[in-house]
Amino acid sequence: MQQKTGTLAGRTRLYRKLHKWAAVPLFAFMFLMGLTGLLLGWKKHTGLLPPTAKGASSETAVWLPLDSLQRIAQTYATDSLRKSPTIDRIDIRPLKGIAKIVFADHFSELQLDCTTGKILSVNARYSDILEKIHDGSILDYFLQTSNEQLKLTYTTLVALGLLLLSFSGFWLWYNPKRMRKMKERRG
Questions:
Q1: What is the pTM of this model?
Q2: What is the 3-state secondary structure (H, E, C) of the chain?
Q3: Mean pLDDT by 10 residues, the chain (187 residues)
């Protein structure tokens, strides 16, 4: 029985070392991931995501063609924003009658009325910046890497670190309880 508690104590010391050596270098990344995750969860309630405007009509039959909306957005990005016109995605909101246009090379969003083509709103998408920080793709964005190598490295390291901390943390909590029970049975 004494040998069993000694073995358990030795393993617990090993888990403590692993826990410490994983936690110290990963602290900043996990803190950043937790903070940005919290903010992303609250993005609609904190102003990080622009409110959705309402267009003239939700009747799709009277809407402008998608290529016209795209051209309006690209012209506005080039002439008024003086930024790249490359579009990442167009998010159509049929019930609101608008199209949200998000650009690939900057964090701007245009909301266009699908019926008239009028620009209803121009905003920065802070939630997209937070998302890129959260998943590590902000480095790929700034360094213009292909295949998201930095994002994959970052998320892999942080995820493996979190799994190791969860595993070692559990045993750091549970082993002392087991040793106490063994000593109580012995005594």
A1: 0.76
A2: CHHHHHHHHHHHHHHHHHHHHHHHHHHHHHHHHHHHHHHHHCHHHHCCCCCCCCCCCCCHHHCCCHHHHHHHHHHHHHHHHCCCCCEEEEEEECCCCEEEEEECCCCEEEEEECCCCCEEEEEECHHHHHHHHHHCHHHHHHHCCCCCHHHHHHHHHHHHHHHHHHHHHHHHHHHHHHHHHHHHHHC
A3: 74 84 86 92 88 93 96 97 96 96 95 97 93 92 89 91 88 86 81
What is the domain partition of the chain in residue ranges? 50-124
Q: How far apart are CA 125 and CA 52, in angstroms?
A: 12
Q: What angle do CA 131, 135, 136 make, to 5 degrees?
A: 110
Model pLDDT for residues 58-73, shown as the tens digit of each residue: 999 999 999 999 999 9
**What sign has the CA pseudo-torsion 71, 73, 76, 79?**
negative
